[in-house]
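Schema walk-through. Below, the input block comes first and the output block second. Nothing else is stored per chain. Lengths vary across the set, and this one has 128 residues.
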Amino acid sequence: MKSDLVVFATPIYELGPTALMKRFMERSMPILYFGRRGPVARNKTHKGKMGLVIVSSAAPYPFNILTGITRYPVSILSRFCKGFGCQRVKNIKAGGMQISKYRDKYIKEAYETGRRMAKLWNSKISFA
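--- output ---
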């Protein structure tokens, strides 16, 4: 709860996060409570906290988005980020990870997002 950045990253299996991620989410329930719009932090969190959700699938872009493969995992993990007190959440929906050109593209995007988030956090400005 005291962190400045929360990152949830998981491959997508059977249209959802992995069992390991689901287990983590289930074990996080005691520090959250569920309001009308999803999980909310029980404890006070600080302003400017950021979240990053990265999901990957073998389905190539735009197929992974058009078919909704990434919709549920991104939605639920973004809500968990909000529950951990994140005011802003950035999503990366990586598709076609078995193809090197797509994999390299999303690795670069994740790296650049991390750099941008660190820079913005250091300047105390949140990202959109």
